[in-house]
Amino acid sequence: MKHELEADSIQLEFGLRPILSDVHIGCETGKITGLLGRNGQGKTCLMRIIYGDLRAAGSSVRFDNRSVMQAFKRPDLLRYLPQFNFIPGSLTVKRIFSDYRMDFGDLEKNFPELGAKYRSAISDLSGGQRRLIEIYIIIRSKSRFALLDEPFSHLMPMQIEKVKEMLLEEKKNKGFLLTDHLYLHITDIADSIYILTDGKTHLAKNDADIISLGYGTPDR
Amino acid sequence: MPLKFFHTIRLLLTFYKSFFLANLLITGACMVLFWEYGLSIFKVLFWFKLVTLWMVFQFIRAYKSKEFYYYQNLGVSKFVLWATTLGFDFCLFLFLLIQVHKLNP
Predict the structure, then answer these.
(1) DSSP at A15
(2) Cβ(A33)–Cβ(A75) under 8 Å?
(3) What is the CATH number for A49?
(4) Do A58 and A13 form a contact (C-beta atoms < 8 A)?
(5) How many domains does chain A have?
(6) C-alpha span between A46 and A9 (Å, rounded)
(7) Range of the domain at B11
(8) A80 vs B18: CB contact, 8 Å cut-off?
(9) Does the first or last residue of chain B, that is N or C, have fewer Cβ atoms within 10 Å of its Cβ?
(10) A4-14/A17-20 β-pairing
(11) Which domain holds residue A153?
């Protein structure tokens, strides 16, 4: 069964500076939606508003046409990967997988180098390994949708390819909305792409739209 | 349902652990002062404890705010984290002061 996530009527201002004013973004299970935009355009704010973590002057966030204002209370509907490390450093990898009720074997199969880290505290892992585990639990744990803020930024190329494979595989079960400045990886796997510019979202139909909306470069 | 309850309690304990020691030291100091000065100092200790709880709240909010996403992604909101852990800590403080009062000759 297909499920939909929609967000619109979002009004966000910081002081007198309008950040988001005319946003419409849609996402559905079985698809990957990309969100691109220059620094400071409000991509993270938009994700946090959808997650219900940031209050906006106006917003409408709907799951299957039902309004959900605090989606963070519903991990069965939505999980969020922030752009920074969010797992408490004292927790072991074993404990994290237990909290998210996930099987470590699958991670080990995809990333054998993490096999020996099962009993390690997450703070003892390298920055890349730590990020990989965070990305993995948000992509793989049960929920209808996942918001991923800069999932590729701290990974090495080989890991990025594995994460892209995981996203393509997991999209059978959920819908993804992701943003990252390594945008070629997004255009590579996304089914649709929105560009956020001047507080408005624009649905890009092709690479030329991404360039004309002031984000991509012609030489790729 | 019991499994979910157990998981939530475990998450709350993990969060509480991040400031438990500081709060225990403050409660311990209050117990010593209460033993020495009795009921006459209760009002001061009561407000002292509330102020220190507020300071801990501000400190954790400033320095560990990123970790809230871990709990939120598991369905435990910031409000639930704070209300249960600070509520429990304050009740523990009152309980221990009552015990000191009972034991004090």
Answers:
(1) T
(2) no
(3) 3.40.50.300
(4) no
(5) 1
(6) 11
(7) 2-103
(8) no
(9) C
(10) antiparallel
(11) 4-85+134-212
The answer to whether A72 contacts chain B (CB < 8 Å) is yes
Q: What is the pTM of this model?
A: 0.92
Residues A82, B66: C-beta atoms closer than 8 Å: yes
Beta-ladder partners of A192? A33
**Successive 10-residue mean pLDDT values, chain B, 105 residues:** 84 96 96 95 96 96 95 96 97 97 86
What residues in B contact A69, CB-CB < 8 Å? none
Per the structure, how many domains does chain B have? 1
Return the pLDDT at B1: 58
Distance from CA of B25 to the nearest CA of A (A): 21
- From first to last of its 220 residues, chain A has per-residue pLDDT tens of 899 999 999 999 988 888 999 899 999 999 999 999 999 899 999 999 999 999 998 889 999 999 999 999 999 999 999 999 999 999 999 999 999 999 999 999 989 999 999 999 999 999 999 999 999 999 999 999 999 999 999 899 999 999 999 999 999 999 999 999 898 999 999 999 999 998 999 998 888 888 887 777 766 5
| Interface check A94 vs B, CB under 8 A | no
Q: Would residue A112 count as lying in a domain? A: no
A67 lies in some domain: yes
Element (H, E) at A129: helix A127-140
For residue A15, the model assigns a pLDDT of 86
